[in-house]
Write a structure and sequence with these properties.
Largest interface: A-B, 29 and 24 residues
CATH superfamily of the domain at 4-84 and 157-251 in chain A: P-loop containing nucleotide triphosphate hydrolases
Number of helices of chain B: 14
Strand order of the largest sheet of chain A: 5-6-7-3-8-9
CATH class of the domain at 4-84 and 157-251 in chain A: Alpha Beta
Largest sheet of chain B: none
Membrane topology (chain B): Multi-pass membrane protein
InterPro entries (chain B): ABC_BtuC-like, ABC_TroCD
Strand content of chain B: under 5%
Structural class of chain B: mainly alpha
Order of helices and strands of chain A: EEEHEHEHHHHEHEHEEHHEE
Helix content of chain B: over 70%
Pfam family, one (chain B): ABC-3
Strand content of chain A: 25-35%
Oligomer: heterodimer
CATH architecture of the domain at 4-84 and 157-251 in chain A: 3-Layer(aba) Sandwich
CATH class of chain B: Mainly Alpha
Shape of chain B: globular
Main location (chain B): membrane
CATH superfamily of chain B: ABC transporter involved in vitamin B12 uptake, BtuC
Protein name (chain B): Manganese ABC transporter
Number of strands of chain A: 11
Number of helices of chain A: 10
Distance between the termini of chain B: 76 Å
Chain lengths: ~250, ~300
């Protein structure tokens, strides 16, 4: 039997007056890749941030391998949205990836040559070794995303949270990222990805979490990735444009 | 003019403003990437009432005690800014603008009261407005140097932590760096640097010692470490040079000369800086224009040759 990695129970969170998460509960099994999907403002990023303690929770419990985030955080990797940092910051790609190792290096110590090698290997995996000493401000959006992924790989975590890693990247970056995700899965790692493109869900992910302030459905993609679930999650004003096995959603209200 | 360089007191004072400049240059880089340049200005203005109140209580000019008063009042200002911003609809820049002027106004008012008190007008408290490094006595210099050295030490020992904290605080928190702890440490070193500098540079101009070296250094490097080092060097050199110039005439304030020196460095950086300096960028553009024009001509002649 596969053990569960994450247990979320009755989780809720808010931004000022607006409750963005309400009674969220689910359980993630080891070695799965889950897509978190839902409309804009459904609380997808907030869910990840609340689980990682980056946003305060109102109620509920989140546990990793049966223990709290504090004890498990060494085994958890996080890839924030690309837009969450200032890419003008004076540093190069290799240096950003090395940041993934800071927790292991220890505070107030200087990264060793070995650490730099590890960071370089992570960059290589993302096909970015040629850009190791490039200023991060001079990287394209897709390259910046790869640097973030490489930093998470350098962390060598067991469980990864990724916030829209495929947003606004070109086809080759998307392919590179998905190759890495599959590799992580085959190594028994667990990955949760906030995803915006419904069309690629069945191809990329084995589990889906439908979220719109609360969980509408969660389970294996084959079972829960249905028109019904999509329609209820995205609201009644969605109109279906079905084309073979392609999923296209149009909103009639905009 | 050079003879006063040999004066031992001038050397002492120059050394202290140099160390102050080094600390301020380093902290300035942290403030620059925390996007809090105006914050340092608000904090230095907010320090003034604390200085005067401390003087009114102890009735003598002991720099360490005045600095503690300044720090408390600056921290109170910082608290007000934070509180206004989080508890009301007032935005941060409005809160800073208000705190800055109200605290400064209170400071000037208290200063007038202190100057009327016995021994008040000889106290040299007025120097805290525009800065008068020459007014510092030996014990002032020692206080300043020790505190500045601690600040410099904290910047350099936690170098990679500062970088992570400023670049990506969410990620930093995820891998176990205490963001609250870093914020507290940042505020402590920022306030310390400001309050030890106000006697030499003055509350009005202290913020320039943090901002100008940092933004000048930005024009020369693409590495965070180099930026901090360079900013410290610019700050230290401006501190020493400005102090020396102000010591050549009696009663010249120190702050303005330090600020003008670093502003000169900034002007040079703005035009000739290796990274995006205006002149350098223009030359690069012209060179690129010429090479693409040559390419274009080559293509045209090749085409012409083929068509004949």
């Amino acid at each position: 039997m596969v053990s569960s990695v994450i247990n979320v129970d009755d989780l809720s969170a808010s931004y000022q007056k607006n409750k963005v998460l309400n009674d969220v509960g689910f359980e993630v099994k080891e070695g799965t890749i889950t897509a978190i999907v839902g409309p804009n403002g459904a609380g997808k990023s907030t869910l990840i941030k609340t689980m990682l303690g980056l946003h305060p929770k109102l109620t509920g419990k989140v546990s990793f391998w049966g223990s709290s985030f504090k004890t498990a955080k060494k085994k958890i990797g996080y890839v924030p949205q690309r837009g969450s940092v200032d890419w003008d910051f004076p540093t190069d790609a290799l240096d950003v990836v090395t940041m993934g190792l800071y927790g292991k290096i220890g505070w107030f110590r200087i990264p060793s040559k070995k650490d730099k090698e590890k960071a370089m290997n992570a960059l290589k995996k993302m096909g970015m070794e040629a850009y190791a000493h490039r200023q991060i401000s001079q990287l394209s959006g897709g390259q910046q995303q790869r640097v973030f992924l490489a930093r998470a790989l350098a962390q060598d975590a067991e469980l990864y949270f990724m916030d829209e890693p495929l947003a606004g990247v070109d086809a080759s970056t998307e392919k590179a990222i998905m190759t890495i995700l599959k590799e992580l899965k085959s190594n028994g790692k667990t990955v949760l990805v906030v995803h915006h493109d419904l069309q690629t869900v069945p191809e990329y992910f084995d589990h889906v979490l439908f979220l719109n302030k609360t969980v509408y459905a969660y389970g294996e993609t084959e079972e829960v990735f249905t028109k019904d679930n999509i329609a209820t999650t995205y609201g009644g004003d969605m109109q279906w444009v079905g084309k073979g096995d392609q999923y296209v959603i149009q909103s009639t209200s905009h | 003019m050079l003879s006063n360089l040999l004066h031992i007191n001038t050397l002492w004072v120059m050394a202290s403003t140099m160390i102050l400049g080094i600390a301020a240059g380093g902290i300035g880089c942290l403030a620059y990437w925390k996007r809090q340049n105006l914050m340092s200005d608000a904090l230095s203005h907010a320090a003034l009432p604390g200085v005067v109140v401390a003087f009114l209580i102890i009735q003598e000019k002991n720099l360490l005690l005045l600095v503690i008063g300044a720090a408390l009042s600056a921290l109170l200002g910082a608290f007000f800014i934070q509180w206004f911003t989080s508890a009301s609809r007032i935005t941060e820049d409005t809160a800073m603008g208000m705190t800055l002027s109200v605290f400064y106004g209170v400071g000037v008012m208290l200063l007038a009261i202190a100057n009327r008190s016995p021994g008040g007008n000889q106290s040299g408290l007025n120097n805290f407005i525009y800065g008068q490094a020459a007014a510092m006595v030996r014990s002032d210099v020692i206080t300043m140097v020790v505190l500045a050295a601690i600040v410099i030490f904290i910047i350099f020992i936690a170098f990679k932590e500062w970088k992570l904290f400023l670049f990506d605080p969410d990620f930093a928190k995820g891998i176990g760096l205490s963001i609250r702890g870093m914020n507290v440490l940042y505020t402590i070193v920022l306030v310390t640097t400001i309050v030890i500098g106000i006697q030499a540079v003055g509350v009005i101009l202290m913020a320039a010692m943090l901002i100008i070296p940092a933004v000048s250094a930005r024009y020369w490097t693409h590495s965070f470490k180099m930026m901090i080092l360079l900013s410290s060097v610019i700050g230290g050199a401006s501190g020493a040079f400005g102090t020396w110039v102000s010591s050549t005439g009696s009663g010249l304030p120190t702050g303005p000369f330090i600020v003008l020196t670093s502003a000169a460095v900034f002007t040079i950086s703005l035009f000739f800086g290796k990274e995006h300096g205006i002149v350098i960028r223009y030359i690069q553009f012209k060179m690129q224009q010429r090479s693409s024009r040559l390419d274009h001509q080559q293509v045209m002649t090749e085409k012409g040759g083929r068509s004949q």
